[in-house]
């Protein structure tokens, strides 16, 4: 009985010790976002590995308005980098150690596209997508 109590205490103490020693980098990416993003937009097999399917997001068209849309692997259309005409499109790219967002929109014209990336197992993944084309 005494051995069981000691074993339990050691198990609980080791769990607290391990959890208190977690790296401050847990939840942060170990790869450079710009390098990841360039490859993500040019390498289709890499992109498929780095999208968290089913991908939650929002989808709005003239026919559809769904704020809980789920993109599926089988319906995925590859995302590619495109040259933005800065007179028509605006872009906001924000990157931190734990979150990256890329917003592309046309002010007042009904076009808004947003990708949200987060590190999963220290590698960047697309985790949320908003596609509004009116």
What features would you highlight for this structure?
single chain; 134 residues; alpha+beta; 6-stranded mixed β-sheet; 3 helices; 6 strands
Shape: globular
The number of helical segments is 3
Evaluate the radius of gyration. Answer: 21 Å
Q: Share of helix among residues?
A: 25-40%
Low-confidence stretches: 2-26
Oligomeric state of the chains in view = single chain
Distance between the termini: 70 Å
The number of strands is: 6
Fold and architecture overview:
With 134 residues, the chain is of the alpha+beta class. Helix content is 26%, strand content 35%. The chain has a six-stranded mixed sheet with strand order 2-1-6-5-4-3, with no helix packed on it. The protein is globular and about 40 Å long.
Chart the SSEs and their pairings:
Elements: H1 2-20, H2 33-42, H3 44-49, E1 55-60, E2 65-71, E3 90-95, E4 100-106, E5 111-120, E6 123-133
Parallel strand pairs: 1-6
Antiparallel strand pairs: 1-2, 3-4, 4-5, 5-6
Gist of the model:
The chain is an alpha+beta fold and 134 residues long.
